[in-house]
Design a protein that fits this description.
Mean pLDDT is 75; it is low at 1-34, 261-265 and 395-406. α7 (102-117) crosses α9 and α10 packs antiparallel against α11. The chain is of the alpha+beta class. The chain is built from 13 helices and five strands.
Length: 406
């Protein structure tokens, strides 16, 4: 707003009348200059005008049609923030240098997040900041005109107001960014859920029905042929059955990955449980337990761990003939440890070399290693199987994190 002519002339005379070294001081109390006690009465006068400044502030908001001044709940928090900014300005005048209460600024993030949640766009906060600056500047010029050292009062008070407002606008912008990011994640999660449902309902069920029909045909009393012979005419039916079984397994894998809820904090447990339930097996009995917050680990680590544990579960369901399978994951501040244990038949790892199981184990080890971890396998004929994974959350020797770990 324009400065009144008489005040501008008074400020100019004050600046001319002051000694040169005094005119050179700024609002940051440079070394060798103690706070000027002459400004203390001005600070108290400015603080005493807080109710009038707040009243004018709300009048300006109302004239704008700003919801922060019109809505009673929004105005309550807006008024509190204004009083804190004015208190910082008064304290800056008392001390002779700019002071902004950082703890109060940090609290602004919660206020801004609440405003956004109520549908108040950040542009209204920017307009409110302008209105408060205007209302405060009027009072600041008035007390400066009445007291000594006009130019110091105006300079110091203006800088204090600006910094207090800027800090809160910055905190509000960060809160708005976090809100938008959360909305994007929610939208992505909803899209993933819809896609998983469509894959299950439109693809998975159809493939499952076709596979079951082929299975009924091959095991019906009228089918006495050797369908496994390579040149039998029924052989294509067997191949089709195997292809459908593979497609159904792929669809289940895709569904469990899509249904991972990234914002739940327990995405790993939900995804693994969903995978186990998708198989609809009476045996084995499965227990899955995840301890610790997944937020401690980078998304890349959680993703790779999920794929490793899913493969270990698949092996237990398909080959182990186990009655019980357990999955335990512990996430601490420095490490993720996971274990898949079954009481099945076990196997000889050396005898399995070159087969599909060997390829699956190699893939699991590679995935663990890709995030700096290790995988250990303990098994033997008739001994069940234990798969253990350890992944450090602090980079180990030779570990170069990918972009997600960054």
């Amino acid at each position: 707003m324009p400065v009144p002519d008489e005040l501008a002339r008074g400020v100019a005379r004050s600046a001319e009348d002051r000694p040169a070294d005094d005119r050179a001081t700024d609002g940051n109390a440079p070394d060798g200059h103690a706070p000027d006690s002459a400004l203390a009465p001005v600070a108290e006068e400015f603080a005493a005008r807080t109710p009038q400044i707040v009243e004018r502030y709300r009048a300006l908001l109302t004239a704008q049609g700003n919801p922060l001044g019109v809505d009673p709940a929004s105005w309550q928090s807006c008024r509190q923030q204004a009083e804190l900014i004015l208190a910082d300005c008064a304290q800056s005048l008392r001390s002779g240098h700019v002071e902004v209460d950082d703890s109060a600024v940090l609290a602004t993030r919660a206020v801004a997040a609440h405003r956004v949640g109520r549908g108040v766009h950040p542009v209204y906060s920017t307009r409110a900041a302008s209105a408060l600056f205007e209302a405060s500047l009027v009072a600041l010029f008035e007390v400066a005109q009445e007291g000594p050292r006009s130019i110091d009062v105006i300079r110091l008070g203006t800088v204090a107001l600006q910094r207090g407002l800027d800090a809160r606008l910055e905190a509000g912008a960060m809160a708005y960014d976090a809100y938008l990011f959360g909305r994007v994640r929610e939208a992505n999660a909803a899209a993933r859920t819809r896609l998983a449902r469509d894959v299950h309902d439109r693809v998975g069920n159809g493939v499952s029905v076709a596979a079951r029909q082929l299975d009924v045909h091959l095991h019906s009393p009228g089918c006495t042929c050797d369908c496994t012979a390579p040149h039998r005419p029924e052989r294509p039916v067997v191949l089709a059955q195997q292809a459908l079984a593979g497609a159904l397994a792929d669809a289940r894998d895709l569904i469990t990955e899509l249904r991972r809820s990234e914002g739940s904090g327990q995405a790993l447990e939900i995804a693994l449980t969903g995978f186990a339930e998708s198989l609809r097996l009476d045996e084995p009995a499965v227990r899955i337990r995840v301890r610790g917050s997944e937020s401690r680990a980078a998304t890349e680590i959680v993703d790779e761990l999920f794929l490793v544990l899913r493969e270990a579960l698949r092996n237990a369901f398909t080959h182990a003939r186990a009655k019980h399978v357990s999955v335990d994951v512990n996430i601490s501040g420095h490490e993720v440890r996971a274990e898949v244990l079954d009481d099945g038949t076990g196997f000889d790892p050396d005898a399995a070399a070159g087969g599909r199981s060997r390829n699956g184990l190699a893939s699991m080890r590679e995935r663990a290693a890709s995030v700096g971890g290790t995988l250990a396998l303990v098994t033997g004929p008739g001994r069940g199987t234990r798969v253990s994974v350890s992944i450090p959350l602090l980079p180990g020797p030779g570990y170069e994190p990918g972009p997600a770990c960054g």
